[in-house]
């Protein structure tokens, strides 16, 4: 597997997507929520800004939040953010808006949820290494609990083997040309809720890299407390 930290001709653009409506946060804009005095979006951008393998960062946010995000980027002196762009009506439209604003020289795109501020440089680099080798990769963790499939009446009809189940997180990293080909050739490509689904629908394989259980997504108020505990544990 290539050593991404010593890459010569690979340009990697991160697309950080933070354009949701924060419905499950009671309408509070979670990207601006402070965890231990630092906004969520700042924590997220910071990890990618420090990751050597990342060359560029494009932030996707709600149009009404663009100026506030730019102010934070200036305040924290992030060096790799090239632009802040508006999202769209669906996740895939938001991701696509970010991707088309990355450098024309970008070889790979690392798509990441803005609300996952506890991602680590190791997770980013490990996932990128796998994507460079196979074209598409995502980080994920093994399912710990037994999972049941139910029908419309909530009757159990199947118990999948959890050895083959993963909770998929982000980053999800793809060869940029592969991603754009999928967007242009998969029907209803802009309605998928997960970026891997787009590549799967295009008939390509996505490799899963073992990730980190602490790489949680800030979705509810309870997640804020959990993230704070993880941050304090890390010191």
Descriptive report:
The structure is a single chain. The chain has about 240 residues and is α/β, with parallel strands linked by helices. The chain has one domain: Spore Coat Polysaccharide Biosynthesis Protein SpsA, Chain A (Alpha-Beta Complex). About 30% of the residues lie in helices and about 25% in strands. The chain contains seven helices and eleven strands. It has helices spanning about 40-50, 65-75, 90-100, 120-135, 175-185, 195-200, 220-235, and strands at about 10-20, 35, 40, 55-60, 80-85, 110-115, 135-140, 150, 155-160, 165-175, 205-210. The strands form three sheets. It has a seven-stranded mixed β-sheet with strand order 5-4-1-6-10-7-11, with helices on both faces. It has a two-stranded antiparallel ribbon with strand order 2-3. Strands 8-9 form a two-stranded antiparallel ribbon. Strand 2 (about 35) and strand 3 (about 40) form a beta hairpin. The chain is globular.
Tally the helices: what do you get? 7
Kindly provide the radius of gyration, computed on alpha-carbon positions and rounded to a whole number of angstroms.
Answer: 18 Å
Query: Uncertain runs with pLDDT below 50, 5 residues or more?
Result: none
* Helical residues, percent: 25-40%
Question: Which structural traits does this protein have?
Answer:
235 residues; alpha/beta; Spore Coat Polysaccharide Biosynthesis Protein SpsA, Chain A; seven-stranded mixed beta sheet; two-stranded antiparallel ribbon; 11 strands; 32% helix; globular
């Amino acid at each position: 597997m290539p050593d991404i930290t010593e890459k010569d001709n690979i340009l990697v653009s991160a697309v950080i997507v933070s354009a949701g409506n924060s419905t499950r946060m009671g309408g509070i804009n979670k990207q601006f929520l402070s965890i231990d005095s630092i906004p969520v979006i700042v924590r997220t951008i910071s990890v990618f800004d420090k990751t050597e393998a990342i060359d560029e960062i494009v932030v996707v946010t709600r149009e009404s939040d663009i100026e506030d995000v730019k102010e934070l980027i200036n305040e924290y002196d992030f060096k790799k953010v090239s632009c802040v762009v508006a999202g769209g009506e669906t996740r895939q439209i938001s991701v696509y808006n970010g991707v088309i604003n990355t450098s024309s020289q970008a070889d790979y795109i690392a798509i990441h949820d803005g609300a996952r501020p506890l991602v680590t440089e190791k997770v980013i680099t490990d996932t990128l290494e796998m994507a460079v080798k196979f074209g598409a990769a995502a980080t994920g963790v093994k399912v710990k609990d037994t999972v049941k499939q139910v029908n419309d009446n909530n009757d159990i009809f199947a118990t999948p083997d959890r050895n083959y189940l993963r909770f998929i997180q982000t980053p999800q990293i793809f060869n940029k040309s592969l991603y754009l080909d999928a967007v242009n050739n998969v029907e209803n490509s802009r309605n998928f809720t997960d970026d891997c689904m787009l590549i799967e629908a295009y008939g390509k394989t996505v490799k899963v890299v073992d990730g980190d259980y602490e790489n949680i997504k800030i979705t509810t108020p309870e997640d804020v407390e959990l993230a704070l505990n993880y941050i304090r544990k890390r010191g």
